[in-house]
Amino acid sequence: MIHHGFQSIAIFNANQYAEAMQRVIELAAVCHDADTTLACRTIEVYLHIQLGNDALDRACPTEAADHFTAAVNTGTFLSKSAIHSKYEEFVVLFGCDFTSLWQTANQKRCHALLRAGKLAEVFEAYRYMTDMSDEATKASCLEWSLGFMQELSTFRDYTPNADSTPDMCKYDDENDSISDIDSEIDHVDDMVS
Fold first, then answer.
1. Residue 45 structural domain
2. Structural domain includes residue 15
3. CATH number assigned to the domain comprising residue 146
4. Could you tell me the superkingdom of the organism this chain comes from (predicted)?
5. Closest CA to 181 of 40, 48, 4, 61
6. Tens digit of pLDDT for each residue in 121-174?
7. Are 168 and 60 within 8 A, CB to CB?
8. 16 located within any domain
9. How many Å is the maximal CA-CA distance in the chain?
10. Pairwise pLDDT comparison (114 vs 79), residue with the higher score
11. Are 108 and 52 in contact, with CB atoms under 8 Å apart?
């Protein structure tokens, strides 16, 4: 399983986003043991976070929020699951800290929604994160929460442009596009159902 995870992340890092996501989803669909499912979902969360980061880099907060929301929804189990130590290799090779993925996805989701000017959704996402967090996660988020609330207060009278560079938000390259990823995920979901 770890080998397939390495392959998926390497393919993703080579800008083959749809293929990487499809491999992880297909592996999760055919392997029904708990360890493989946990590993696949964890890698899927990581890939969504990376897509969200890319969208933020292109000043596309709405698209970023969609990816971070997908990461949060896929990774709801991460808030209470211990990531097995055998996945520490991913930290060394790819710099992904799987133990904080759920927290990272939630925090980045709040920031992206704020930058997109979706204040009602910001409050909903923040409330969801705090409701779903255990005490240790809440404690580790305290400093971030204080900073985020301060940032939120500066947006009170300002509504940012959701996607300040709309042309850059039309993600498409020669190999993959966001619509490819979505359609391939739908196709895999149809096969599994």
1. 2-159
2. yes
3. 1.25.40
4. Eukaryota
5. 48
6. 999 999 999 998 888 888 888 999 999 999 888 876 565 555 555 555 655 444
7. yes
8. yes
9. 50
10. 114
11. yes
